[in-house]
Amino acid sequence: MDKKTEIAKRDDQNIEKTRELYEVAPAVDIYENEDEILLYADMPGVVKDELSVNIDNGRLSLSGVRKLETSGAASWEEFGNVEFVRNFSVPQTIDVEKVEAELKNGVLTLHMPKSEEAKPRQIEIKTA
């Protein structure tokens, strides 16, 4: 299994109602370059205080709750309060201590830098 496939592996595929909230998997985009893996998760309406990002034992867990403030009785609802939940396997090449997260305009961005040992390097060729 290559690194892209490994991190993109989804554990939960279906929408599931848990507790009083619907649980849905946020859409994600994942990019990789020489220095890091970038993960973008679409989590509209989630605020920082309702967001959780954890990495433990090679498992990345994202969780965020969107709570809409409403008044009056709903006459039509197509989206409401929801919990975004998604889990990924994290390659061992990621330097977990340097992972950074940013939430802006409903998009969570995770910068997951590769360890120095995992970065590609060019080998110098010596001549005699």
TrEMBL record:
> SHSP domain location, by residue?
19-128
Superkingdom of this protein's organism: Bacteria
- Coiled-coil annotated residue ranges, if any: none
Q: Which PROSITE patterns does the UniProt entry name for this protein?
A: SHSP (PS01031)
Q: Name one Pfam family in it.
A: HSP20
Matching InterPro entries, A to Z? A-crystallin/Hsp20_dom, HSP20-like_chaperone, Small_HSP
* Entry-linked CDD domains: ACD_sHsps-like (cd06464)
Entry's family note: Belongs to the small heat shock protein (HSP20) family.
This protein is called what? Hsp20/alpha crystallin family protein
